[in-house]
């Protein structure tokens, strides 16, 4: 199934089998799928931020995706999550405890098909068109508990400027501080690709086995901004894929544009602007399924351009995820990840070490489905960090997920 049809299937046909049937038959209708997750995590990651913090934590997440079908072509889709930190594995690096509500997506869409051709248009808050994992950002869809490394926190800031390579070797802990000007507040860094949506517009095209997409947004996938926020800079993202055969698709995506905040503008070299220091990303993704086996994989590279650097900091990521259905109720899944960082060069010279420690992560999970709407996942993640403790970042997790339809109503 190509990406365009997969998107529409996830948006319009989500929920239980009964809700799918109602959505297919109705010209006008409302459906509100809800995924409720409760989790237990045990890890020593938080001790780097606060030595006395407990390693054992309990959290929850509620993801609601209200959808309205206005007719054969028009629809509205939204996604709102409420969660307690730490629920996501990346939150366990920080001792902060809070409950947060976020609108991940909210857009108006239009789709039309002619034979083997389908065209779609969406405007509003959209998931990034870069990469493949944003389509699986739901605990009921993700076979494991964690997210792949390129969708996790990275120790770089968009609102401060590093003076050189020495700024990247900060003191232990999740907070990031650079010394050449910018915001004065404490921050934790950026995520190379946001899972929390971007404001913009997207065009999707599907023809036979080929699919393509083009997205214009108000900000970078690494620095998403609200509609009324400062530091908005136009950004483009493009992608395409080809379904070699049913169950086997390969794709690629790319983006490029400004990513630095307006807070650094006064500290830029004379005669330069924020647009002179873009962030670029290139990715390749593969999806495969046959019988009880399925696999997902991605390779991505990002170049983070700052002033004062002859060779910009760059990171590459890769992961492969395998899932095996053992029986009607059981499955097992495994994901291997890596992060590789380059040796940037400033005015003094090339740094002898990578600007961030290289990382490898391995996650194994077993899932059990007591019925069609519930699943229990138990997993363990091994994290190897270069120049870091070898067991400190490991995580044991348990997650119980329930998917329901809070509302399913055919109006016409």
Whole-Å distance between the termini?
29 Å
Backbone CA Rg: 22 Å
Strand content: over 45%
- Shape, please? globular
Number of helices: 2
Question: Sheet with the most strands?
Answer: 17 strands, antiparallel
- CATH homologous superfamily placement: Porin
Percent in helix: under 10%
- What is the name of the CATH topology? Porin
Number of domains: 1
Low-confidence stretches: 4-24
What's the layout of helices and strands?
Layout: H1 3-12, H2 17-25, E1 29-43, E2 56-64, E3 67-69, E4 74-85, E5 98-114, E6 117-126, E7 198-207, E8 210-217, E9 235-245, E10 248-258, E11 278-290, E12 293-304, E13 309-311, E14 314-325, E15 330-341, E16 345-346, E17 359-371, E18 374-385, E19 395-410
Antiparallel strand pairs: 1-2, 1-3, 1-19, 2-4, 3-4, 4-5, 5-6, 6-7, 7-8, 8-9, 9-10, 10-11, 11-12, 12-14, 13-16, 14-15, 15-17, 17-18, 18-19
Question: What does this entry look like structurally?
Answer:
The protein has 412 residues and is mostly beta strands. It has a single domain (3-410), classed as Beta Barrel (Porin), CATH 2.40.160. The chain has two helices and 19 strands. The chain has helices at residues 3-12, 17-25, and strands spanning 29-43, 56-64, 67-69, 74-85, 98-114, 117-126, 198-207, 210-217, 235-245, 248-258, 278-290, 293-304, 309-311, 314-325, 330-341, 345-346, 359-371, 374-385, 395-410. The strands form two sheets. The chain has a 17-stranded antiparallel beta sheet that branches. It has a two-stranded antiparallel sheet with strand order 13-16. A hairpin with a 2-residue loop joins strand 5 and strand 6. The protein is globular. It starts with a helix and ends with a strand. Mean pLDDT is 90; it is low at 4-24.
